[in-house]
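To: structure subgroup
Subject: Chain for Friday's discussion

All,

I'm putting the inputs and outputs inline so they're searchable in the archive.
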Amino acid sequence: MVKHQPLQVYERQLCLSCITGLYGCRWKRYQRSHDDTTKWELLWSFILLFTFCLLLVWFYFWWEAHNDYNEFNWLLYNRSGEWSDGTVPILATTAAGVIYVAFLMILALCHIALGQQLNLHWLHKIGVVAALLTTVVGVISVNQTWEQEWEIVPISLQATGPFLHIGALAAVTALSWIVAGQVARAEKPVFQVVVMLLYLSVLLGLYVVPLYITSPCIMDPSTLKPRPEVIGQRGAPMIAPENTIWSFQRSLQMNVTGLETNVKISADGVPFLMHDFDLRRTTDVEKVFPERRTLNASSFNWTDLQQLNAGEWFLKDDPFWTVPSLSPSERRRIANQSVCSLEELLKLASITNSSVVFRLQRPPPDHPHHHSWINDTLTVVQQSGIPQRLVMWTTDEQRAEVRRQAPGLIQTSLVKCSLQSLQQSDVSRMLLRYNQVSTNEVRNFSQSHIDLTLYTVNDPWLYSVLWCSGVSAVSSEAPQVLKKVPYPSWLMRPNEYCLMWVSADLISFAVIVGIFVLQKYRMSGMRSYNPEQIMLSASVRTASRDVNVMKEKLIFSEVGSEMGADEEPYMDGYNYYSNQSIRQ
């Protein structure tokens, strides 16, 4: 007679298999383990955590840098000579890296919560290292080419700090479930103390960090100053080709109060509008004058400049991804744009009673008007018929002579100066990049009757922060966006903010205490694993620990009538038998 021994049938655990399989390619039950994680795998866990944190910072940097994407593309253009949106590959790789590493982090936390041994698969290790190295290279590259953009991070935290604090507090509160479970299961008191100290240190830091969060948007709404004026920088370059009449007309349709541009002097002494050194990016000079395409724009006379088309490049390159939204009539009008002169701009501003601010660039030494550039430009301003009170003069050279000939011009500085220096120079306005002045400096200048115009402000969050800071005007490449901001994105009284973060801290503390109590109660009621379950690694720390995770079905047959019922072996649900054969 052959006696068949018990066949063990296990309960399927698809969720656990997916977690361990996706993280460490351990799809089979026998591959899983509840043993302590090895030191090597702990090291990889710390590398994963560090990569995740670095990617979050990198992702946040590029989120807040959205305001200056055009500036970044301009830096790339100066290096390569070809215009392209360099932010697209960076954003794509950053988003992919954040999603991938965040997914691995979630799987790792699930391993810890379920008491599974961490064992990151070697392919994931390669992926994590690739994400880490790519991010480090990106950070180093930004430090070398765009270092000033890091100064924007503190400014952005003035808009996002209170909300990031709430989000971080919610995340750390949720982690208390895992921390409490680890502390309750741990057998070594030292481990429990270390884990608790680390967790409480992070938690306490989050509880008190609002004391160090400052934002101009935390203020009494009754003290909010009027909405800052918006000046169209090179018109409305996101929806029309920059420095063309159509671009300035479009910006005026967006309710701007002023127009900003760059002015060069042609070879025959005509001031015209052009931002770049040469004409390749914004005209068809390569088609009309191919042999002169790399020359300084000031080397062309006005007759040559009028032959160039200044709109077709916009339809072809679509630098801001806005061309598909244009109507057929707008596209036809854009296709017929030409290089604009300063006189045309001033006449348009005079008709619409809009202010004008321009940066005058001196021609090279071999230029026919290298010495007369100030007088040539001033003559055009005076002959255009625009009221002098609408023109902001930014050139420092011969400022005294300009003030004598045109005393009504608004003297404007492009360099940050002390109040004493501004008063001595009779300068009443400054045009600065938005990261060059703090909130306190804005208020000090305002009290001294020095108006500030800050550039380049394209995003509503930045416009809101500067509005709350008391800035009088901003220069923007996206007036169509700022037109839709009738009020700061958020505004909160100091007592309301205090109530918000204190309430959040108290709720978080109550939830954490409840979770620790619940975890301790759960763990105290759980029975320990028996040797069979440990050896087979067939159990999971489920919510009750009393659920059987291994079921045995006894399969046996009687081959002869001589075997009685009393000879039938009794099989307990948790007994373990090794296979054997008994022959008679």
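Points worth raising on Friday:
The longest strand covers residues 258-265.
The chain has a mean pLDDT of 87.

D.
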